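Appendix B. Chain record.
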Amino acid sequence: QVQIVESGGGLVQPGGSLRLSCAASGVIFPIYSMGWYRQAPGKQRELVAIITTGGTTTYADSVKGRFTISGNNSEKKVWLQMNKLKPEDTAVYYCNVDSVGAGPLGNYWGQGTQVTVSS
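Structure tokens predicted for this chain:
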């Protein structure tokens, strides 16, 4: 079966850093991209960062210059380095995997990991 395993969430003070990790297994379709989304209370889920297997990255404007996404295609892993964290970064962060040519059947989500930025 498909498994999306996340780690690295937690509590951090404003200005601090966290590193999120995600590993995918059991994905039988070729992967097009992996990335991170987040959802804060009362808000819609939003894109944080995505990286394609070709190395193209996309960032939300709110995190540009602070967050960096990286990946390893052969191991099907992706990381999100989060620096200079702000209280508004507080949310549940979800790892996403999007496969080639499979439509909804090739799109997978992790269980989510809580990131809390507070003094």
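Further analysis of this model is presented in Appendix C.
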